[in-house]
Each structure stands twice: as C-alpha cells, then as structure tokens.
C-alpha cells in the first residue's frame, strides 16, 4: 500500500465553548452549511495488515464553513444528533457513500467495502431501513459492499433496538462493525447477542499498545476477544510502521490510519486504490 498522502483533515477550530448560545450559533451554521452544500464526504482507506492490500474505505463527514474553516465532526455530529438534523445529514452521507461505492465497482474493485458511520438517532428513526434500502437501489449497489459502523456505546445503550435493526439490514447483505471497541463496557453476553462482522479497535489502544506493556496486554485481550467471537478485527489510528507490525503480531487482521492514508476526497481515493491494490 502507498504510505503517504496529503491530509485533508487540517482543522481550524474557532474557539467554541460549551455554552448554549454558541451551540445554537453552531447549529444554525450547520443547518445553513448543509443546505448550501458545504458538507462533504472524504474517504480513508482500510487495508489488510498482512498483505497490505486495500480493502475499502471509511466515509467521514466534513464541514467547511463559509469562512473556509473546518469544524471537526466530533463537535458538530453531537449537535446534529440532538437536533434531529442527523437524519437528513446521515442520509446524505449514506447516499454519497453509495454513489462512490458504485464508482469503485465500475472501476473494477468488485469487493470494495464502504464503511459508513451511523448514529443511534438514525437507527431510532422509523424510516431508517427504507432509507438505507432506497440508497442501495437508487445507486445500484449491492448490500455486501456496504458496512455500517455503530459505536460500542450505541450498541450498549439500546441493545434490543440495535439487535432488531441489525437482523433486518443484514438480510440485504450489509455487514456491521462495532466502532470504538474497547472504550465502553460491553459485556460478552451483549456482544454475542449482536450479529456483527467486525470489531474496530479504538485508536487509544493502538497508542497504548506501544507505550507500555500493560497497554499491549490490554490490546491483546481486546483483539483476542474479537477473534474468540469469530470476528474480523480492524485497528484504527495506525500511524507508524512499528504500530502496524505490533498490531499484526497481536493478531489484528486489518488496519486504518495515517500510515496507509489520511481521509481524502473521492478522486484521490480512486488514485490511492489504483496504487494500493497489488
Ligand atoms: P471515528 O468513526 O472513530 O473515525 C475515526 C477518526 O479517526 C476520524 O476522525 C479519522 O480522521 C481519525 N483518524 C484516522 N486515522 C487516524 C490516525 O492515524 N491518527 C489520528 N490521530 N486520527 C486518525 P474524524 O474524521 O475527525 O471523525 C471523528 C468522529 O466523527 C468519527 O470517529 C465519528 O464518530 C464521527 N463521524 C464522522 N463522520 C460521521 C458520519 O458521517 N456520521 C456519524 N454519525 N458520525 C461521523
Ligand atoms: Ca467510524
Ligand atoms: Ca472509531
Ligand atoms: Ca474514535
């Protein structure tokens, strides 16, 4: 795989505190930004740690304000969730990602896996499955090329609902990953109840694994847990070759991180795939 790519994630974050007025202003800006097409999607490659082969990408949302600053998704996604705006923004991400998937299929990457983040609020919305299936149908993409990433905390907050939605969407061939795995306190029994395909180890473990032996023991346990459940394990936030080798040695199958590629616009992803696929 190709090792370096110019980043598209240089954030400038205006001093935004937590008070209600600022949040309201930010939400107003987000609404306007969405309507005026200032939200867009970038893609970060995922690779097989052993072969280095490109497997697919994660779709990540970006918001560029009128002034040209980037507001980090960690700041605006929670607002979008609380306000309900996430329903339409989430649909936009899904449709954009499906379109790009179609494009990758046309370029000959038949097994391309596009990972899309979804919020609990989207799962809770009654039209979620219809929206999802319509996005597939309208773009002519098969479910097996799409993976949904749900966070561990979301899976634990409403396991019952998540279980039902998963049962429904998995019939279309869509796969599911548990994101930020290891940061919550999911019990084994909860995990086993959920029909998921992949565990995505949080970046914090990748960092910790390298800095202390306790950290590496914990990373090992999280990876073993996933493997023990018969799941594919992917680590996010791999920045160095050293980390790649360590995660691979710990039994992690796949990886994502700056070492392989930063989140990038669609055209760049297409070039990256051309170079990153043996
Ligand atoms: P996430 O799903 O855990 O996404 C991974 C984050 O790690 C991304 O941050 C990515 O840019 C960053 N990252 C990837 N590789 C590296 C690395 O090697 N080093 C470091 N330091 N960081 C790395 P980003 O794009 O800022 O997204 C932050 C969060 O916002 C995401 O975390 C996700 O929870 C949320 N998000 C982004 N797009 C969407 C979306 O379309 N829908 C929803 N619901 N949430 C989204
Ligand atoms: Ca994710
Ligand atoms: Ca994550
Ligand atoms: Ca994370």
TrEMBL record:
Source species, domain of life: Bacteria
Residues of the EAL domain: 23-277
The protein, known as: EAL domain-containing protein
């Amino acid at each position: 795989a190709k090792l370096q790519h110019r980043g598209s994630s240089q954030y400038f974050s205006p001093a935004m505190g937590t008070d209600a007025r600022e949040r309201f202003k930010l939400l107003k800006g987000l609404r306007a930004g969405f309507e005026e097409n200032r939200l867009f999607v970038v893609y970060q490659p995922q690779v097989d740690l052993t072969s280095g082969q490109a497997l697919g990408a994660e779709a990540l949302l970006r918001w560029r304000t009128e002034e040209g600053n980037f507001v980090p998704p960690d700041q605006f996604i929670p607002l979008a969730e609380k306000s309900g705006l996430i329903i339409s923004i989430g649909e936009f991400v899904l449709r954009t990602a499906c379109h790009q998937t179609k494009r990758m299929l046309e370029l000959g990457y038949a097994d391309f896996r596009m990972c899309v983040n979804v919020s609990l609020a989207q799962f809770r919305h009654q039209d979620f499955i219809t929206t999802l299936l319509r996005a597939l149908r309208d773009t002519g993409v098969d479910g097996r090329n799409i993976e949904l990433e749900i966070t561990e905390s979301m899976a634990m907050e409403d396991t019952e609902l998540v279980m039902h939605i998963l049962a429904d969407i998995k019939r279309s061939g869509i796969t599911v990953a548990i994101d930020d795995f290891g940061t919550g306190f999911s019990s084994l029994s909860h995990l086993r109840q959920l029909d998921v395909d992949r565990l995505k180890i949080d970046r914090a473990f990748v960092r910790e694994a390298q800095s202390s032996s306790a950290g590496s023991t914990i990373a090992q346990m999280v990876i073993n847990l996933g493997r023990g459940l018969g799941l594919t394990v992917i680590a996010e936030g791999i920045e160095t070759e050293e980390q790649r080798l360590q995660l691979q040695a710990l039994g992690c199958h796949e990886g994502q991180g700056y070492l392989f590629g930063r989140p990038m616009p669609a055209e760049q992803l297409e070039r990256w795939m051309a170079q990153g696929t043996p």
